[in-house]
């Protein structure tokens, strides 16, 4: 039974490669099942489409190396948001570690504080 499921999922993914709209529909259904608002889902899908158009344009203009795509993306991000994707990742990691530190401190405080 498990093998049939894997084969079915593999067939679906191959169909999605041939027709990317199928992948978008599947993604949309997943987000809807998770309870995300329709306008948020549409915004995400528009962002993906815009990104695809942008990378297609870069490819048409001769960009071939993955590193070049990363450099261009970082420059656009920095000009738009004032921060590169790697800086954003570091910031999110720092914020996550701060939340964990706060949680541990809070639990310790409650554990040893008098009732």
Describe this protein's structure.
The structure is a single chain. This protein is mainly alpha-helical and 115 residues long. The chain has a domain at 2-64. The protein has five helices and no strands. The mean pLDDT is 79.
Q: Percent of residues in beta strands?
A: under 5%
Helical content band: over 70%
What's the Cα radius of gyration?
21 Å
N→C terminal distance: 55 Å
- Overall average pLDDT: 79
DSSP, total strands:
0
Based on Cα principal axes, name the global outline.
Answer: extended
Order of helices and strands: HHHHH
Determine the number of helices (DSSP H or I, runs of at least 4 residues).
5
Pairing-aware structural class of the strands and helices? mainly alpha
Unreliable spans are none
**Main beta sheet strand tally, sense and closure:** none
